[in-house]
Amino acid sequence: MVKQIYLGKRFFISGLLLVGIFIWAFSHPHWLDIAKLCLLAWVLLIFVDMLLLFRWQKGITANRRTTERLSNGDANTVTIDVENRYPFDIAINIIDELPAQLQIRNFLLTDHLASQAYHQLTYTIRPTERGEYFFGSLHIFVSSPLGIVQRRYSLMGKESMLAVYPSFIQMQKYELLAFSNQIQAFGIKKMRRIGHSMEFEQIKNYVVGDDYRHVNWKATARQNELMVNQYQDEKSQQIYCVIDKGRTMKMPFDGLTLLDYAINSTLVMSNIVLKKGDKAGLLTFAEQPHSFLKASKQASQMRHIQELLYREQTNFMESDYEKLYSLIRRQITQRSLILLFSNFETLSGMQRQLPFLLNIARRHLLVVIFFENTALHTLLQQKTDNIQKVYEKTIAEKFAYEKQLIIKELHIYGIQTIFTQPQDLSINTINKYLELKARGRI
User: What is the side-by-side strand order in the sheet with 118-125?
Assistant: First the structure.
């Protein structure tokens, strides 16, 4: 019971006032009796306050509610249900032992509950690392209307572990946008399909009932009889998201690394691809190829992708594109769309990998996705008022110019690119996929 007693602000304020009365009584003896009465009343109020708080063994009940897993990089809601079983109104302070990864050291929720009332308190957390997050005990400090002392309830059985997965909240949001009429408002383009939604199969003689729009006039002129093009239903295309886990993907932005942004975008893209009827696959690599999931459109494919992405971590090794090309050549035999999430900071760094990118582009439709350094962009917008800032801005302009040279160099060799800020990665990747699909490139 003693460990549950905490002193409130009113205890110290009233104690200081009492000390002041005794100091005054030292020079004015006729105040001494009043000071003693005040001391007696103060002790009595403390006793009454403790009696009110400890008379009921379970004056309150509380429970923490969360989702089964947390979404990385997003605001996740945590709810605390509190019920007041005291026959009087109470004030509560709640301290929840949050996971160490969040580094939140000043967490506090306050509320007032009427007698026999039930209330829900909510707060949000934003994890920035994938993995296991451990919640500790739930501590609730209760004050009666007197507010002199507090009783602590430590709900030790409320410890729990939650796994932080790649951003499934973004996945659900972009799924709704990609199939709604409001997608333009969020930056996702709705593109008209040019041509047919079928693949050419053969030229055959016209028979009654064939669509006259499919008449092949050149073949008709050669054969001197009416010929039409016959089409077959379009087959599902293979879409592979390839994630570079090398040291360049360790760069942080808004609490997340570039690898986390690539992983979140891969989850979003894979879901859209499957919803569009195509096959989604996954490949990760660094100094060695790490994970490979063959493209498929089975119902269990999203679950497999989520489990693989959950475990992926970057390292400080140099990525080996030669081994990446060897793996793609062996494992991906059908022409596919390859979305390569990487980050090239210099033109020379990209040129070292260019021969392997060209080899991949000869067999597949390759889209290289890399990131704009937003810190450089901010530096370029600043005014220069001294020599040091002029020097820094000149260096920033050099790096920004090299990014444009990288884009130009890749376009010369016919390689598609997406150059994007990290927060716009998912939107721009979806746009490129819908554009290529609408134009019949895949």
Answer: 60-65, 76-84, 118-125
Residue 347 DSSP SS3: helix
Q: Which stretches of 364-386 are DSSP H helices? A: 374-381
Rounded to whole angstroms, how far apart are CA atoms 109 and 99?
A: 17
Per-residue DSSP letters for 36-103?
HHHHHHHHHHHHHHHHHHHSSTT-EEEEEE--SEEETTS-EEEEEEEEE-SSS-EEEEEEE---GGG-
Quickly list DSSP for 184-224.
GGGT----PPPS-SEEEEEEEE--TTS-GGGB-HHHHHHHT
Residue carrying structure tokens 């028979």: 207
Which single residue is written with the structure tokens 């934003």? 126
Rounded to an integer, what distance in angstroms lies between the CA atom of residue 152 and that of residue 1?
A: 9
Band of the pLDDT at 192, cuts 50, 70, 90? very low
Residues of the chain with CATH 3.40.50.410: 168-192+235-438
pTM (two decimals): 0.78
* CA distance between the termini of the chain: 71
CATH 2.60.40.10 residue ranges for the chain: 1-165
Q: What is the CA radius of gyration of the chain?
A: 33
The count of other CB atoms within 10 Å of the CB of residue 205 is: 12
Q: What CATH architecture is 1-165?
A: Sandwich (2.60)
Contacts of 238 (CB under 8 A, 6+ apart): 278, 279, 281, 295, 332, 334, 335, 336, 337
| pLDDT of 316 | 79
* Per-residue model confidence as pLDDT tens digits over 304-328: 999 999 988 887 788 999 999 999 9
The token pair that represents 345 in the structure block:
């900071």
The label of the residue with tokens 């996945």 reads: 171
The string of pLDDT tens digits covering residues 277-303 is 899 999 999 999 999 999 999 989 999
Contact between 336 and 283 (Cβ < 8 Å) = no
Cα separations in angstroms, 373 against 97, 392, 400: 36, 15, 8
Strand partners, 238: 279
Q: What is the mean pLDDT of residues 37-58?
A: 92
